[in-house]
Amino acid sequence: MRETDFDVQGFARDINELLVLSALRDEPKHGYQIALDVETDSNGLFRFRHGTLYPILHRLEDAGLIRGSWADEGGRRKKVYALTERGRRHLSGETSRVHEIVSRLLSLLRHPGEATA
Fold this sequence. Notes:
single chain, alpha+beta, Arc Repressor Mutant, subunit A, 3-stranded antiparallel beta sheet, 54% helix, 15% strand
């Protein structure tokens, strides 16, 4: 990865999207359950603020990475989201990219000058 390939401002957005995709890896879920799972699985480190999650879900759905469908749960209609095969591939590729970015950041913080190798 070259330094010009990395968009610092877009990195947080990318992380939020990956958190959603990761939460859907094993089974379909509605938005509130996705938010709960992300918060629980990260021991509270990652949380979706009010008004943040649903725009992410819409973006991912528009990109074909997730698929939403309406379901009745306990007499209430809820939109349930599922990871598509394209979303599964995207999650895998982006996980590798994030790992590389974090590894390079940690290397830079520990040993300045060595991260550019």
